Amino acid sequence: MAYNVLPLTKLVEQFERLPGIGHKSAQRLAFYMLAQPPERAQQFADALIEARTTIRRCTSCQSLTDNDLCPICEADDRDPSIICVVEDPRDVIAFERTREYKGLYHVLHGLISPMDGIGPDQLYVKELLARLSDDRVAEVIMATNPTVEGEATAMYLARLIKPLGVKVTRIAYGIPVGGNLEFADDTTLFRALEGRSEL
């Protein structure tokens, strides 16, 4: 006879829906949550529900926020003349970790991928173009991933933006710090040479 406790099975199934979580990891998480004091489990559930009900897209950059504007768009010390276009809100967090970029962002929430049925209309392209009507914007940095979809999206957007008189740049790709040239692929080496800077 199989050991089956329905609420536990349902909890494991919910954890399995998370990206990168297999059945065994889902079981571990479920048993961990069941071992917590009831108030800790309630805090976890409350945090999940609060995040799901209060977090929405920034009305300007489309990143995540709990207000109309995200903290970056609200900040007075950001440079409104530069917009960095990224695929996902997680990319904003990655750039912010560097503490070097001082401009604004625009989150597409995906990339153009005809194979997956994703075209420009499913992304926040119109919202980006609307932001470029502001005369303060001088440069748009394409910071999509160096994949076929990322390159296609960057090229598509560049074709739309250049006629507006706004400079369009692409982030450089190259050899990671601590990497070995011997193991780099041809495209990475080419990008590293192309994106070289003066010492």
Structural commentary:
- The model has no long low-confidence stretch (mean pLDDT 90).
- The protein is built from 8 helices and 6 strands.
- A 4-stranded parallel β-sheet has the order 4-3-5-6. A two-stranded antiparallel sheet has the order 1-2.
- The protein folds into 2 domains: 6-54, Orthogonal Bundle (Helicase, Ruva Protein, domain 3); 76-180 and 186-192, Dna Topoisomerase Vi A Subunit, Chain: A, domain 2, CATH 3.40.1360.
- The termini are far apart.
- The protein is of the alpha/beta class.
- It is 43% helix and 13% strand.
- Helix 1 packs across helix 2 (23-35).
- The chain is globular, with a radius of gyration of 22 Å.
Keywords:
8 helices, Dna Topoisomerase Vi A Subunit, Chain: A, domain 2, 199 residues, Helicase, Ruva Protein, domain 3, alpha/beta, four-stranded parallel beta sheet, 2 domains, two-stranded antiparallel ribbon
